[in-house]
Amino acid sequence: MFQKQLLACMALSFIFALLLFVPxxxxxxxxxxxxxxxxxxxxxxxxxxxxxxxxxxxxFGNIGLRYGRILAANDSLAxxxxxxxxxxxxxxxxxxxxxxxxxxxxxxxxxxxxxxxAGLSPIGLKLNFRRxxxxxxxxxxxxxxxxxxxxVPEPGAARFNFTYDFGGGVxxxxxxxxxxxxxxKYQHISNGYHAPNNPGIDVQMIYxxxxxxx
Length: 214
Fold this sequence. Notes:
This protein is mainly beta. It has one helix at residues 2-21, and strands spanning 36-49, 59-73, 77-100, 106-129, 135-152, 158-173, 178-190, 201-213.
C-alpha cells in the first residue's frame, strides 16, 4: 500500500515539474513585484554528523514541491513563508546483522538498509538579499515531519519523525520569473521521544531547484 502511494506521489511530482516548464505568457509586472513562488527541488546528503542525532553513516535524499509567499519586501530584502510537500524521501543507514555460517557459528555482517518515506514541511521561512538583482543570496529554515514505510533508523524507534533544517544558498532569478536555486542545509530527523528509542539523524545536504514567480 505504501509503495503504491509513493509511486502516485512520484507521478504527481513529475507532472508538476512538467507544468513548471510549460511556456507562460509574458507577465506585465516586474519580477520583484510577484509574490508567489511555485517550485520543485531535490537534495542529497554528503555527510552525517552526530551533533544532536546519534546515527553515524546515515545517507538521505529527498524531492520536494514548494509554494512560497513573500510577506514583506523592500528594495534590498524579501522575507517569505514557504511550505514544502515531500513526496519522496529515502533514508539509508548502516546496520549489522548476524548471519549463520552453516557450521554452527555466526558472523557479523554490515550492510545498508534503505527506507522510503514522505512528508510535509509547513513551517518555512526564507530571507532573500539583493532582491532586485539576478543573483540573490538567501538564508532559510523549515520544520515539518516525515512518515517512513518502517521504523527508522533502528528497532525501537518510530515510523513518524519530526524534521527541521536551516541553511542558505543563492537563487538566480531571471526577468521572466524563472529562478534556479542552489543551496546547503543541515537537517535533523527524530521522533521527538514518542517512541522508546530516539537516536536521531543529522545530515548535511546540498540541493538544487527550479521555481516560477507569479
